[in-house]
Write a structure and sequence with these properties.
The complex is a heterodimer of chains A (273) and B (394).
Chain A (H helix, E strand, L loop, with lengths): L13 E7 L3 E8 L4 E8 L4 H9 L18 E6 L11 E2 L2 H13 L5 E6 L4 E7 L2 E7 L8 H11 L6 H5 L13 H13 L4 H19 L6 E5 L1 H5 L2 H9 L4 E4 L6 H10 L3
Parallel strand pairs in A: 1-4, 4-5, 6-9, 9-10
Antiparallel strand pairs in A: 1-2, 2-3, 6-7, 7-8
Chain B lengths: L2 H17 L4 E5 L5 H6 L2 E4 L1 H10 L3 H10 L8 H12 L3 H6 L9 E5 L5 H13 L3 E4 L10 H22 L5 H23 L10 H7 L1 H5 L4 H20 L9 E6 L7 H10 L2 E6 H4 L11 H11 L6 H14 L4 E7 L12 H7 L4 E6 L9 H14 L1
Parallel strand pairs in B: 1-2, 1-3, 3-4, 5-6, 5-7, 7-8
Helix pairs in contact in B: 3-5, 4-5, 8-15, 9-12
Classes of the chains: A alpha/beta (273), B alpha/beta (394).
The complex binds iron/sulfur cluster.
């Protein structure tokens, strides 16, 4: 389905943010004030270049000469995400850590220290913002527990569509924890629990709680405000509530364009380089 | 003489020694008593250097699984598993690099536990394989301070070692030879220290990744004129480079410190990553490990004991915290990267929150996961991301 396209002027300046994540490519187009004029997402597929190119060339918003990666002078393209180094035609690159910060900050305009929890396809990040810059960050190390990949793997095993998970989890009538750290071993644990007669709703709830636990194990959240970003949160809104239960003395804020925070941050970065 | 030639001559000569019934080869750990061995006429071979070569050439990825399948866990030192796997598979990177078909057969193996216990298991494997005598210096470990009784303990072990080696060489130990050997070693090691200190300059004349190459002679040729002369020349060259490179105005380069083992199979990748991000890794604990400022030819055994006990890896975390903080100041470092090497907890000082302690003192730190040899423990994408994000925050 086509997103609505924007009417672009020859004289204005435009900023494209491309977030090349491990499972999805997100693209936003912003005007010079950082208003989103156009956004689009697609699967991260091979060839990456072609997929990003297609996303950039969507509808009338295209600023590009056909079949050529050359941009017009009044457009800047900034990339972030794992795939950023594979895109030759961009004007600049930045890590997702900084991109998510810029994207969240652009939307929330907070002037107090805060923490961003960003759950992505293959990594989870806890970023502390102080003095309007990234003060420190923690990422999941080595394994994918606590990330989108973990949820997806178990959804697959349970044969539950991703979109139904929050609804099912809300119907839980019992709480318990999954113990395994490793995604694959958690899968075994899930199957065993199911065989022991556990309700699938309770299992999905346990699965969400385990994601929250793994993320909070990475570091201490020291600020009063926690902002959420990233595609996984968008698909699984119950996670925000569960984080809130664990961090009960803090304020939880879901960033409006959760999925596009990275891409938007990249576009915002483009305005400063 | 250029570095490649020096290393080639070293390995060819070692090969000749192993084939000559009149010469004797000793295997020694990298921070073991090489000077005693050399003074007693042994040609000295360092298996850790071989492990690093297996890592740098990535041959280890074929050899580690061989050792694993023989019961040596993937969780233990991957120098050990790389090297034992290579032996079991009968291959060596020395063949391609220097035309040497086999590692030299040992007449004796000497290890020092001042760095870790894995070296003991490693050397014991070969002692069994080659039916060769083996001696260990069992050092008091993780010291806050080196006390006189620690030194006395190690000196007594050195003396015992010397008596045992005399039986192998059938020659009386000559203290004069040890004094000379130690003087040469001391000379080389202080020159090496000066070489590393040239990186204090901004811009630094070389990076950690270059230093891992320069360090060949200080590891394998301590106690020889060759090492001393090499570092004298290198120092001159680097000083000249510093003098002729005008200090950059508005320098954009960031300066970081590398704590932990090198990731041998990814040196080039990492070096390019830092370059791409306008960053120089100006100093490291690892390369500094071969500075033995306490060597004193007039007091050989006690000064060797002190030097070998003093090493960073053998100290407690309070010492380590101060050491790294001092380095950060000396090299004007913007941040410290801790490499948590999966198979070498001994050189992975992030395990007990040293990064957090430094951070509290205002020194930015980050931890990346990896390994010295086993690339199965290292993710290019993840570490690139973490390093780049860290550099963005500096
Ligand atoms: S210190 Fe680490 S790398 Fe060196 S031999 Fe011991 S375990 Fe291996």
């Amino acid at each position: 389905m086509k997103e609505p396209s924007a009417q672009l002027s020859e004289n204005a300046r435009y900023y494209w943010g491309v977030d090349c994540g491990s499972s999805e490519i997100k693209v936003v187009l912003c005007d010079a004030s950082g208003n989103i004029l156009h956004k689009k997402k697609g699967k991260t597929l091979f060839p990456l270049y072609q997929n990003v190119y297609n996303a950039l060339n969507d509808g009338d918003a295209t600023p590009f000469v056909e079949n050529s990666p050359i941009t017009k002078d009044n457009h800047k393209i900034i990339a972030t995400g794992y795939g950023r180094h594979h895109l030759q035609f961009v004007d600049d690159k930045l890590t997702e850590i900084k991109a998510h910060f810029l994207g969240v900050q652009h939307q929330l305009k907070l002037d107090v220290p805060y923490t961003i929890i960003d759950i992505g396809g293959q990594d989870a990040k806890v970023i502390t913002i102080d003095n309007s810059k990234v003060d420190e960050f923690a990422m999941n190390r080595k394994c994918a527990a606590g990330t989108g990949a973990f949820i997806e793997e178990l959804a697959h095993r349970l044969e539950v569509p991703i979109g139904d998970m929050t609804k099912l989890a809300n119907q839980h009538d019992k709480e318990f924890m999954l113990n395994s750290f490793c995604t694959v071993f958690s899968g075994q644990e899930v199957i065993k629990t199911l065989m022991n007669g556990e309700r699938i709703e309770n299992l999905i709830f346990a699965l969400y709680r385990s994601v929250v636990k793994r993320v909070l194990e990475m570091t201490v959240v020291s600020t009063d405000i926690v902002a959420f970003s990233g595609g996984v949160i968008a698909h699984h809104p119950l996670l925000v509530e569960l984080f809130g239960q664990k961090l009960s003395d803090k304020e939880m804020v879901l960033t409006p364009e959760t999925q596009y925070c990275g891409a938007l941050g990249a576009a915002v970065h483009g305005m400063s380089v | 003489m250029d570095l490649k030639q020096i290393m080639q001559n070293y390995f060819l000569d070692l090969d000749a020694a192993a084939k000559d019934p009149d010469r004797k080869v000793a295997w020694c750990t990298s921070v073991g008593p090489a000077e005693i061995l050399r003074a007693m006429g042994f040609d000295v071979y360092f298996p850790e250097n071989h492990g690093a070569m297996l890592g740098a050439t990535r041959l280890c990825m074929e050899t580690i699984p061989v050792a694993n399948s023989k019961g040596y866990s993937p969780e233990i030192c991957s120098y050990l598993t790389s090297d034992i796997g290579a032996y079991l598979k009968n291959i060596t990177p020395l063949a391609k690099a220097y035309g040497v078909e086999d590692v030299p057969r040992p007449d004796v193996l000497v290890y020092n536990t001042n760095q870790c216990k894995d070296v003991m298991h490693w050397f014991e494997f070969y002692a069994r394989e080659f039916d060769a005598p083996i001696f260990g210096i069992h050092s008091p470990a993780h010291l806050p301070e080196v006390e006189p009784e620690h030194i006395a303990n190690v000196v007594a072990q050195f003396k015992q070692l010397i008596r045992s080696l005399e039986e192998i060489t059938q020659e009386k130990f000559d203290p004069k030879k040890l004094e000379r050997c130690l003087a040469l070693s001391s000379g080389a090691t202080s020159l090496w220290s000066e070489v590393l200190k040239t990186a204090i300059a901004d811009p630094s004349p070389f990076s950690f990744f270059d230093a891992t190459i320069f360090m060949g002679p200080i590891v394998v040729l301590r106690g020889t004129e060759i090492a001393r002369d090499y570092y004298r020349d290198l120092l001159m060259e680097l000083e000249q480079k510093v003098a002729t490179t005008r200090s950059r105005e508005n320098a954009v380069q960031k300066r970081v410190y590398w704590e932990g083992m090198p990731i041998w199979g990814r040196l080039r990748h990492l070096s390019e990553l830092f370059k791409r991000n306008d960053t120089c890794v100006v100093a490291s604990t690892y390369c500094n490990s071969w500075i033995f400022a306490d060597f004193d030819p007039h007091d050989p055994l006690p000064s060797m004991a002190l030097a070998y006990l003093q090493i960073f890896i053998n100290r407690n975390d309070t010492y380590k915290e101060k050491y790294i903080s001092d380095m950060v100041k000396m090299y004007s470092v913007d941040g410290v990267i801790f490499h948590a090497a999966k198979t070498c907890p001994n050189n992975s000082n992030s395990y007990y929150n040293l990064p957090g302690r430094l951070k509290r003192n205002g020194i930015p730190t980050i931890v990346i996961d990896g390994d010295l040899c086993d690339l199965r423990c290292f993710s290019d994408e993840q570490s690139t991301n973490v390093i780049e994000a860290f550099l963005e925050t500096l």
